Amino acid sequence: MSLSTGERPRTWPTAPAPGRRSRIRRVAADLAMGVRFAFTGGREGWTRAVLTAVGVGLGVALLLLTTALPHALGVRQEKEAARTDITFTGRWLPKADDTLVVANVGSDFRDDSIRGRALEPEGPRAPLPPGVERFPAKGEMVVSPALQELLESDSGALLRERLPDRIVGTIGESGLIGPAELAFYQGAEGLAPHIDSGRIVRIDGYGDPNATSERSDPVLLLLILVVFVVLLMPVVVFIAAAVRFGGERRDRRLAALRLVGSDSGMTRRIAAGEALAGAMLGLVFGAGFFLAGRRLAGTAEVFHISVFPSYLSPSPLLALLVAVAVPTAAVLVTLLALRGVVIEPLGVVRAGRPPRRRLWWRLLLPLAGLAMLYPMIGDGRDNGDFNQYLVAGGVVLLLVGVTALLPWIVETAVARLGAGGVAWQLAVRRLQMSSGTAARTVNGIAVAVAGAIALQMLFTGVEDDYTRSTGQDVAWAQVEVTLPNAVPVAPAAEKLRNTKGVNEVYDYSEGHLGDRARDPQAGTTVTVGGCSVLREIADLPSCADGDVFAVHGAERDTGVDVAKLAAPGRTLYLDPSYEGGPKSLEIPWTVPQDVKTANPRHALLAGTDRGGILITPKAVPDTLTPALQGHAYLRLDESVPDVHDRVRNTAAAVDPLANTVTWAQTERTGRFDAIRTALLVGAACVLALIGASLLVSQLEQLRERKKLLSALVAFGTRRRTLSLSLLWQTTIPITLGLLLATAVGLTLGTVLLKMTATTVRVDWSSVLAMTGIGAAVVLTVTLLGLPSLLRLTRPEGLRTE
Amino acid sequence: MTPPAGSLLWAEQLRKAYGPTLALDGAEFSIHPGEVVAVMGPSGSGKSTLLHCLAGIVTPDAGTIMYGGRELSAMSDAERSALRRSEFGFVFQFGQLVPELTCVENVALPLRLNGSSRKEAERAALTWMERLEVDELRKKRPGEVSGGQGQRVAVARSLVTNPRVLFADEPTGALDSLNGERVMELLTDAARSTDAAVVLVTHEARVAAYSDREIVVRDGRSRDMERAV
Q1: Cβ of B158 under 8 Å from any chain A Cβ?
Q2: Would you call B222 an interface residue with chain A, using a CB distance cutoff of 8 Å?
Q3: Which end is more exposed in chain A, N or C (fewer Cβ atoms within 10 Å of the end residue's Cβ)?
Q4: Are A511 and A565 found together in one domain?
């Protein structure tokens, strides 16, 4: 046969010769193939990639938020400092063309605070507050956008009564510390005579030039540090779990690759490429979530804190660290996970009985953590700041110890679990076969609960140091109204008495008496009130209108001989002047001859014994009135809706400068409360995140077992049995996880308390609350997974075409 | 139309659609106690859907299925589940054994679902495992046994409740010919010995050869084939 006949020789196509590529290019090609695999595989492939990316993205967003928070809080502080007007420095300024009189007319509306200032410019160069373009005239005000919205809404009608001024503008972002802040500046006249009352000052500029940062409190710094570590650890654990979503399917795919000739090194690199793709997409998602969250932050308020989106800018260095650390961690976790798996061409081999987990190195982690914290035990707050590296390292190791110990505990415990019903058997056998997966699922919750228990212990332990009793008896009165000087108290009290929800009003006026008109050597308080009110202040022998009393030996008058000061016929001066300050009223008053003696008592009206001189109304000459300041104490019927705001409205109608204070038994340091609030916000975010991760992982496991579940239902297994089995599968590891978390949390809490030299006390209710919240998250996730279980066990699951 | 005399399971005019795809379009079927019927046809012809309808796993859109004088298609989901637990047995292509349970626990599972005690169920399970020559695997998990062994364990599981009808969907599809033949021998012998009817879905003629009668499904319609002897 010759070629000329037109027939061609029959040959098979030959395969191209294997390429000779450098090792780096080979690794890159394997990684790229992994990246491709992450996004191929149709709908399922995409779903898996998106689930991983959502998981990693949520973690990344939280990490970015954490890196942005210090900046956001810093900007809030800077803004607050820039608009500071009342500095309590005692500096007295004379009136000039660049001065401004500012009165604090802030108030509360329901649970919100309203920052309010009345402004009276004294010259053309008076300083404008930040964010305000021109001074409002009397009867006008400029308000924050949030306050404007509130005033224009139906729910703000009651507040509108208190702030009836015409709105002529809004305060710009530079004058506010958050978009939800309620603030206003109103025009005022005649403020100058009231300067020096503490709430009214003359200034020539905003900002506190002598601002000094508070000395750092070692215990507060320790709290902040531990809060950060405790909140970030579960996020890291969560990310580690998220990059393992879809692991079983990936292993099968890798086995198929082995079949067509990829060696085990290539397989691992391809797996790393897949993980890298998920993590990178997660970074993109995370940045997206963060930006969306940032926009949302402009409209949300959490625990009365709001921030402008522009405040939430992560530090570039920390953001870079997140961008590098997350993909690296994803690859490392994947390679670590592949250690226990042998991928063979004919399938994935997981050793039927993997080697038992060893306890010794798992115990080393928490022990090393304790060893790092141990040298700081007993330091207290008097030995400077705690070593933050040792604190962070110690806490991290203790919490990482939870994630290391939990798989061992779950494995050991479930190996001993006996027989039970079918649901129990299915659950226990599954746990025995893959206790590591079960432990990983609850690791995040266990770490979060352990950290939260420790923090709660620390907070409860040091709470007393940051809380002081106000001495106010809230059973006796709930609100105190203080009037500006010279405003008569009796008519004001009458108006308050007629306010809906006010049951009783105790009113009196007070001033300061000195032995000299200027720079007095001795002085005391003068209180003017009816006999019934004066009896609440001191033990009176008898009382009739027209009587005057001198209270001897009161604690408040320590160092003052009231008997000598109030000698009959002696002239004293109400509102004396002091060197360096403006001239006061210096009103002379002569002690009457028939002045009576009274004994001090722990006064209900002020929390302490008051002492001084007590005068009934008929004995007060009119000349004293301008120097007296009125006070009213109100007992309320708290069941009347908005009773506190009705009282504030009445007080503001009496005089806009009236100060209304709601009584409380205790008050806490603002920074302590702020840290506690941050913990609550963070813990809520972390638990929601872990809940979402648990749900994703549970749904994925269910999807992996779709065919098996359908087969079980096909031969008659009740769905109730499968649901119960799912519940057991979650309940057993979470119970073990929470027990371990409680033990580690209590240990860490004890160590932290000993470091602060505080008595160790366990607040079992908060331990129960924390473990309860952890358990509730798991239960909720299981319940949310049930509809999927029911859907996946439909007989249609058996279809293959 | 009334069921043929003596038939255990009978269906007529079955229609079932999955979205726009018509899986069954007027299929018919009947089987007597102790009979082995092979349902044959190409991939996607509707044979598995027919099996799922006959077993009460899915309900047809139209048509009637009678089992032991009761209308299966009119039963509630709970009633059909109870029927599957007590009177039907199943073998699937990949065994679908629960990977976490040992082989004996897998075989005992249907009995335990029916309320038997663990000991009682495992004793019965072992008897069937011995009969299917897999009793030495009782403590092993499905991941530790071969495909053929796993399928024999699955057959044991399908027979442990002494079902009146055994549904086998491509029971040898994942096995080599030797193992496939061994599984089919054991399955049909065991079924005949207990007078169980077998509905055998397959596309392999050599597997269908174990049946007494063949039904061919094509485009959702069924046709009884005369067997050439």
Answers
A1: yes
A2: no
A3: N
A4: yes
Say which of A425, A708, A716 has its CB closest to residue B81. A716
Is A636 in a helix, a strand, or coil? strand
Q: How many residues does chain B have?
A: 229
The answer to whether the Cβ–Cβ distance between B105 and A716 falls below 8 Å is no
In this model, does residue B228 exceed pLDDT 50?
no
Q: How much of chain A, in percent, has pLDDT values that exceed 90?
A: 30
Q: Are residues A499 and A454 in the same domain?
A: no
Determine the distance in angstroms separating the CA of B175 from the nearest CA of chain A, rounded to an integer.
Answer: 14
- Does residue A499 share a domain with residue A419? no
Q: Of the spans A128-137, A306-315, B167-176, which averages the highest pLDDT? A: A128-137
Confidence of residue A625 (pLDDT cuts 50, 70, 90): confident
| CA pair distance B88, A678, nearest whole angstrom | 60
Among residues A208, A190, A203, the alpha carbon closest in space to that of A95 is found at A203
Contact present, B54 and B45 (Cβ < 8 Å): no
Do B177 and B206 form a contact (C-beta atoms < 8 A)? yes
The reply to whether ipTM tops 0.85 is no
Q: Using the beta-carbon criterion (under 8 Å), do A716 and B82 form an inter-chain contact?
A: yes
Asked if the Cβ–Cβ distance from A426 to B100 is below 8 Å, we say yes
Among A613, A646, A664, where does a domain finish?
Answer: A664
Structural domain contains residue A16:
no
Residue A113 lies in a domain: yes
Q: Which span out of A235-239, A597-601, A673-677 was modeled with the highest average pLDDT?
A: A597-601
Indicate the domain borders of chain B.
9-225
A72-87 average pLDDT score: 85
What pTM value is reported for the model? 0.65
CB-CB under 8 Å, A717 with B113:
yes
Tokens coding A521: 């050597």
A747 to A240, A376, A403, A585: CA distances (angstroms): 25, 15, 16, 63
On whether residue A155 sits in a domain, the answer given is: yes
What single-letter DSSP state applies at residue A121? E
Specify the CATH number for B9-225; select among 1.20.1740.10, 3.40.50.300, 1.10.238.10, 3.30.1490.20: 3.40.50.300
Q: Do B109 and A419 touch (CB under 8 A)?
A: no
User: Both A251 and A378 in a single domain?
Assistant: no
Residue B57 and residue A707: Cβ atoms within 8 Å? no
Which is more confident, A484 or A18?
A: A484
Q: Which residues of A touch B (CB under 8 A)?
A: 350, 352, 419, 422, 425-426, 429-430, 432-434, 707-708, 711-718, 721, 795-796, 798-801
Same domain, A510 and A639: yes
What is the token pair recorded at A403?
A: 């994630």
Q: What is the C-alpha to C-alpha distance for residues B215 and B200, in angstroms, rounded to an integer? A: 10
B21, B54, B96, B107: which to substitute to probe chain A, counting the most A Cβ within 10 Å?
B96
Same domain, A779 and A789: yes
The 10 Å Cβ neighbour count of residue A485 is 19
Q: Please list every residue in chain B whose beta carbon sits closer than 8 Å to the beta carbon of residue A795.
A: 52, 57-58
Please give the pLDDT value at position A371. Answer: 94
A342 and A265 assigned to the same domain: yes
Instruction: For residue A544, give the 3-state DSSP assignment.
Output: coil
CB nearest to B99's CB, from A422, A433, A715: A433
* pLDDT (tens digit per residue) in A518-531: 989 888 899 999 99
In single-letter form, the type of residue at position A374 comes to: Y
Total length of chain A: 801
Domain stops at, among A299, A327, A355: A355
**Cβ atoms of A633 and A661 closer than 8 Å:** no
A19 located within any domain = no
A140 and A241 co-located in one domain = no
**In the prediction, which pLDDT does A671 show?**
66
Number of other residues whose CB lies within 10 A of the CB of residue A666 = 12
Q: Which domain holds residue A730?
A: 357-468+667-801
